[in-house]
Amino acid sequence: MDTEKIIENLKKRGFDAFYAPTKAEAVEKALALMPEGSSVSWGGSVSIEESGLLDRVKNGKYSVIDRSLGKTPEEKYELMRKGLTADIFLTSFNALSEDGVLFNIDGNGNRVAAIAFGPNSVIALVGVNKVVKSEAELEERALKIAAPKNAKRLSLADEKDICGIFVKTRICRTKGRIKIILVGQDLGY
């Protein structure tokens, strides 16, 4: 896998793109892109949890919008909606093609909505385990690898329950709004 070429292809599509050999370096890069005092939210992402980025953000100098603090389903929903107007949204992608196309499957839609339109800055940590050769393989990886693991993690009866919304992101029209940090280690599903 040619990580330099992947980064170059992402940049050609309007994304800011960086390579970090390790999870720790990816976290440091993400934090360097986040001004202190920014409001920060995130969607469900094993990658940002596994990397340690969430812990650093929660214990940092940010205004955190954390849906898990909602005491009722209604409060959690409102926190997810508020996350759409955060300064920064943290996430990952289920798949990334070598030519720079991104793909996500989402259950609620808050994650893909924030990526598509909302926060001024989206920062995504993507492990090399999520890279596929071509755009044609994106959906297959998301459906056959990410969806079953996420369904199990969330104790869903059927993996199709997590597959409510499919979004392919081929270009970032607001140049640099979406920042991809490709991590040289496996991260998430």
Can you give a write-up of this model?
The protein is α/β, with parallel strands linked by helices and 189 residues long. It has seven helices and ten strands. It has helices spanning 3-12, 23-32, 46-51, 53-58, 73-83, 110-116, 138-153; strands spanning 16-20, 39-42, 63-64, 88-91, 95-97, 102-106, 121-127, 131-132, 165-169, 178-183. Strands 1-10-7-4-2-3 form a six-stranded parallel sheet, with helices on both faces. It has a four-stranded mixed sheet with strand order 8-5-6-9, sandwiched between helices. Strand 5 and strand 6 form a beta hairpin. The longest helix has 16 residues, at 138-153. The radius of gyration is 15 Å and the shape is globular. The two termini are 18 Å apart. The mean pLDDT is 93.
